[in-house]
Amino acid sequence: MLLLSARPAPTRARATRLLPALALALGLLVLVGLVSVAVGTRSVPLDTVWRALTDPSSSFDDTVVLSRVPRTVLGLLSGAALATAGVIMQGLTRNPLGDPGLLGIGAGSAAAIVTGLAFFGVGSGQERVWLALPGALVAVVAVFALGSGRRGVTPVRLVLAGAVVTAVLSAYIQAVTLTHPEAFDSYRFWVVGSLAGRDPALIVETLPYLVAGFVLALVLPSSLNALALGDDTATALGATVGRTRLVGALATALLCAGSTAAVGPIAFIGLAVPHVVRLLTGADHRWLLPFSAVGGAVLLVSADVLGRVVASPGELQVGVVTAFLGAPVLLLAVRRMRGAE
């Protein structure tokens, strides 16, 4: 397995170079958000968008703009959450192909939602939030239980346990959806991942989980930098390896459960964004995490806008667009692994 390495650079020189870049990224984030509320079946000029947001009236254009705001906010939050979770997973497992799926989080959320749909008649709209979170947490606990040994949790054990849990849960999902057609009909639309038609109330309902996940992520950068040097070196540097993995897994579960419950399981954001950002920031998680959060938000909302433009007057679901955009990045990651070997 290729291990991610930490190559610290002089802090002041790096800050001088990266702070302006972060400001530009935040500016791009605002621009993408404005474009997202401007583009659709009825396109609205950007100056009208800005006026509608700063001084709304009862005009038709303003109503259209304001109706698109919840979709954009949901996309920004979910993209930032998935990319942040991807950085944490790659740091915890020291695996450049790591993403939240390695801990079975997506499969756990999906299994819980399918169970609710098939056996309890729940799982639509806001109810998904209350199903996805415990499903994700149970999957994480199962992965850590299976991945623990005499020498504690290691990256290899964690990855293998995640693959086992994901395979078992995927088989369960297939068995349930094949025997319950009504659950399959709802599940097949949810599993692709989309920002269209989401209830604005989902923002309020998922926000506590996402905020809790982001707060936990804030305490991890230094520990993840130490962990990249190996468990023994991290311990010698004063990092608590077990606690770092536990906090990281909890942060990942909260971020992924919240975003998955809101918009469905969207692939490649957690995998692709850290790789692209790492080309700019290097492996220092103090910069990698904030840049990836902004990059994930920009990528998800941009993919949503692209899906609306390409298939106008209809639209492609954002999960389909991110899959097409993420495939080249996955190939790049594999080529870099082969080059490093």
Features:
341 residues, mainly alpha, two-stranded antiparallel ribbon
Layout of helices and strands:
Blueprint: H1 11-38, H2 46-54, H3 60-93, H4 105-120, H5 127-147, E1 148-149, E2 152-153, H6 155-179, H7 181-190, H8 201-218, H9 221-227, H10 231-236, H11 241-263, H12 269-281, H13 285-310, H14 318-340
Antiparallel strand pairs: 1-2
Helix pairs in contact: 1-3, 1-13, 2-3, 3-8, 3-11, 3-12, 3-13, 4-5, 4-6, 4-7, 5-6, 5-11, 6-7, 8-11, 9-13, 12-13, 12-14, 13-14
**Overall SS class:** mainly alpha
Global mean pLDDT? 83
Strand content: under 5%
What share of the residues lie within helices? over 70%
Number of strands: 2
The main pleated sheet reads as: 2 strands, antiparallel
Poorly predicted runs are: 1-8
Spatial strand sequence of the major β-sheet:
1-2
Sequence of secondary-structure elements: HHHHHEEHHHHHHHHH
Shape: globular
Number of helices: 14
Radius of gyration: 20 Å
Q: Determine the N-to-C terminus distance.
A: 9 Å
Structure at a glance:
With 341 residues, the protein is an all-alpha fold.
What does this structure look like?
- This protein has 341 residues and is mainly alpha-helical.
- The protein has helices at residues 11-38, 46-54, 60-93, 105-120, 127-147, 155-179, 181-190, 201-218, 221-227, 231-236, 241-263, 269-281, 285-310, 318-340, and strands spanning 148-149, 152-153.
- The chain has a two-stranded antiparallel sheet.
